[in-house]
Design brief:
Arc Repressor Mutant, subunit A, single chain, 2 domains, 9-stranded antiparallel β-sheet, alpha+beta, Jelly Rolls, 41% helix
Length: 282
């Protein structure tokens, strides 16, 4: 499974009040806890995390944890699967005391191949920026409008992706540097753009800049430039009657033959075939 294939199936989404002494429980499906008020702590995977207002915890299926709170917690809880494989099971799966669990507690979960850290639990001390989306899911489950589970699952996927972004993207001035490069490319893509030139603009070595850019966008700088040119070419092919020579020039390709060859390799149709196909079947 890849991150793009995640399609959450939520069974339970409610605000609850919780007070408990230390007790180990096993949960079969995934959990997301968002603390509204109170204080407590959770012990999971041999780690201890403090639960206070704004804290957020995501834990994978087949987990064992203890939540301890003598003064009590008000929190929002989601029980869900990362896929729709068991979408027919709509009732919540409550925690089971470890001593009563009848399945293999060491069973391997399906891995998210392209995002390893989501294969374990994730603790965020201050997750208040997710509160609006979390409340939207709770509202969907309260109102139960048509397709509420699908809508709520889509919101939850957005939360998980935002968590991934927050953990994997650079957090220093490199974000500003990459954003500046993206803006420059989007404005000047028809020109001949060199990595060395871009690196000087933001004060990075070109090799390091390309690595940051790849981490931020999923594409190298060169790939991003070509994608931007290709998207502009698609727009001109469908929205104008310009000849290929002028389109290739406007989009920054060296020649119309280079443009046509690259376009067919990426799209599977020649520029003229693409233009005719979409115009005739809009």
């Amino acid at each position: 499974m890849t991150l793009s294939e995640i399609n959450p199936c939520i069974r339970f989404a409610e605000q609850i009040d919780y007070r408990s002494a230390k007790r180990s429980v096993f949960v079969k499906d995934c959990r997301l806890f968002y603390i509204l008020s109170g204080r407590g702590e959770i012990f999971i995977e041999d780690r201890r995390h403090i639960l206070t207002e704004g804290a957020l915890l995501f834990c994978r299926e087949n987990s064992v944890y203890d939540i301890v709170s003598e003064e009590g917690l008000a929190l929002i809880v989601f029980n869900f699967d990362l896929t729709q494989k068991n979408a027919n099971l709509t009732d919540a799966m409550p925690p089971v005391p470890v001593e009563k669990a009848t399945i293999d507690l060491k069973r391997e979960n399906e891995k998210v191949r392209d995002c390893d850290f989501i294969n374990s639990h994730i603790y965020i001390k201050n997750g208040k920026n997710y509160s609006d989306a979390i409340n939207d899911i709770v509202t969907e489950f309260k109102l139960k409008k048509l397709y509420f589970r699908e809508k709520a699952g889509g919101i939850l996927k957005g939360i998980l992706i935002d968590i991934v972004r927050g953990r994997t993207l650079p957090t220093d001035n490199s974000i500003s540097a990459v954003s500046s490069i993206i803006n420059y490319i989007n404005t000047n893509f028809k020109q001949d753009i060199k990595n060395e030139q871009l690196a000087k603009m933001v004060g990075y070595h070109e090799y390091h800049l390309n690595r940051l850019f790849l981490r931020h966008t999923g594409q190298s700088i060169h790939q991003y430039i070509l994608t931007r040119r290709l998207n502009e070419a698609k727009k001109l092919l469908l929205g104008t009657d310009l000849p290929l020579t002028e389109i290739s020039e406007r989009c920054g390709f060296n020649s119309s033959s280079h443009f046509s060859t690259y376009f067919k390799r990426m799209i599977g149709l020649s520029p003229n075939q693409y233009r005719a196909s979409f115009r005739n079947n809009i």
